[in-house]
Each structure stands twice: as C-alpha cells, then as structure tokens.
Amino acid sequence: MTVSTPGIHHVTCIAGDPQRNIDFWVETLGLRLVKRSVNQDDPGTYHFFFADAEGTPGTSMTFFPWEGMRQGKVGSGQVARTAFRVPEGSLDYWEDRFDEYGVDYEDRVERFGETVLPFSDPDGLPVELVAVELPEDEPTVPWTEFVPEEYAIRGFHSVTLWLADAQRTEELLGEMGLEEVGTEEAEGDTPGDERTRFAASGPVGTYIDVLPTIQGGRQGHGVVHHVAFQTPTDEEQMAMRDVIQSDGLRPTQQIDRHWFRSVYVREHGGVLFELATSGPGYTSDEPLGELGERLVLPGEFENRREEIEAQLTEITVPRSESAEADD
C-alpha cells in the first residue's frame, strides 16, 4: 500500500476557562461546537470540538480546558502556529470583526504567495487566517450562525512546527507521503531562519511548515497539545503506523476515541503526532442537527454521568439572535 495522508485531521490545544473558550471559538470565530464531551484520559475535564457545519475531517479544532494549569509558552518541539483557510478577499471582514470583539491581531504578512492574518485566542494561542481561493469541489461546509458564508472559516490550512533539529522530522514527513514544496525566509518570530513547507495530498489541512528554533517552551494554556493526521481507514492507519515504527519511533497501538480511532507517537523533534481515522464520525452518536447540544460521554463513562457532571463547570453555548428567534 502506498502510504500518504490527505492532511491534518484535527488539532488539540489546552485552554483555561471553558466558557471563555466556547464563546470565542463559536461566537467570535463562527465555528460550530460539534461535540461536547470529556477528556477520555481525564474525564473531570471537558473536551470541546469546534469544526465546520458537519464536522468534516480537516476542520476540527479541539480543546482541553484545564482550568488549574499554568500559562503555557510556545517553543521548540511544539506546534507553534495553527492556520485556518478563509475565502479570498475576506481578511478585511475579519480585521473589522476582531476590532469589534477586542481580539489581539497583528499586521498581515505574505507567505508562499498567500496573505496571512496572525491573531491570538483569549488564552494566548497563536492562530492565523490564510486567504485562499476555494476549489469548485470544496469539501467543507461552512457554519453560518455567526459568520456569513462568504467569510466563514473553511478548515485547516496548515500548522507550523518549531524544531531544534528539523532534519529527522522532515525526513519522517516525507516518509508519511508529504512532499517538500518550497522554502522561504521566515518572518516574525524567527527572522532570518528558513521556513520549509510540506504538502499533503488533500485540499484541507494540506500544509506542514517546519521552522528551526531553540526557543524553550512549556505545556499550559495557549499551547497546542498535539496535531492529528488523516489516515481515513484502519488499513491506511496501520500502514502509516508501520512506516513510523520503521523510522525508529514507538507509536502506540490503536486506541478507540469513539468518533475516530487513533495512534499516537512522539516524533523525533518532540511534537506529539496522532493518526486518526475518518469514522465513525461525530454523527455516530448525535443527529447532525443536534451536534454539540448535550454532553456526550463515550463508552463506559456514561455509567459515571452523575459523578462526571458534578466535576464540570456549567457552560452555555452561544446562540445567534436568528437561531433563538427560530426556537
């Protein structure tokens, strides 16, 4: 089997206050809360999934809001930036929206011929919007409760890995089927260094950028926990796992995450990679029209619902005025 990934499946991050996290990602950025659950390794903590209208693979930004954790710091061995696609010509709208909502954003930059708008979420997580021309067969489905379709976020564009020694990671990305497509001088955080871009085979979450840095980091609020790559079927996932293992790494066995099946590995530079299948998907336990409306407790956790709910902070999902009028 030829091994390659269509691109990024999801990115999981660490947040602080859960209500603030939901308010920002749903109302300010206009993503849909497609799953409200708990961290399956720490069920006293929420796990929120924000995505397009249908939870399409390649659109899910997920968060563990660990309220008691310290502020993190982005550094070597981490996903330093997460970028989303937005339609060409929409960045003026987003700057106006950020002004309205008090979002901290920076001047636009040009990168590989595309315009990038960097900003931060309320926990200080570095995020970017990249203006792109959407293909005619665009696979994402915009959610339009807060942001009109012509401006809405359309899944991942890329992630940027900060690495002290990038060579072995770059070789691994090649073995995973990503193609090196260009280099250019980096702007911003590490001026003078060279950014190398790798491309996957799919239209969403296509790019992985690699940037050398020895800047130290730490886990905490405002930091990415891991990046997951699409391995749509079990067979493709096992083939990719074999490739990773043959590179001298130690991937886990497959773990059932209820909405997808996962394999995890700490790659050579220290970034936590996940391989995730496409199914069963977010509609496997909730109708499409009701995604995110209730707390879903997978598997054996349902038997502990009363105990788990007692540990969780009460939250409210934002609703637009038009949605409330329809109720």
UniProtKB/TrEMBL annotation:
<feature type="domain" description="VOC">
    <location>
        <begin position="7"/>
        <end position="132"/>
    </location>
</feature>
<dbReference type="GO" id="GO:0051213">
    <property type="term" value="F:dioxygenase activity"/>
</dbReference>
<dbReference type="InterPro" id="IPR004360">
    <property type="entry name" value="Glyas_Fos-R_dOase_dom"/>
</dbReference>
<feature type="domain" description="VOC">
    <location>
        <begin position="155"/>
        <end position="278"/>
    </location>
</feature>
<dbReference type="Pfam" id="PF00903">
    <property type="entry name" value="Glyoxalase"/>
</dbReference>
<dbReference type="InterPro" id="IPR052537">
    <property type="entry name" value="Extradiol_RC_dioxygenase"/>
</dbReference>
<protein>
    <submittedName>
        <fullName>Ring-cleaving dioxygenase</fullName>
    </submittedName>
</protein>
<keyword id="KW-0560">Oxidoreductase</keyword>
<dbReference type="InterPro" id="IPR029068">
    <property type="entry name" value="Glyas_Bleomycin-R_OHBP_Dase"/>
</dbReference>
<dbReference type="InterPro" id="IPR037523">
    <property type="entry name" value="VOC_core"/>
</dbReference>
<keyword id="KW-0223">Dioxygenase</keyword>
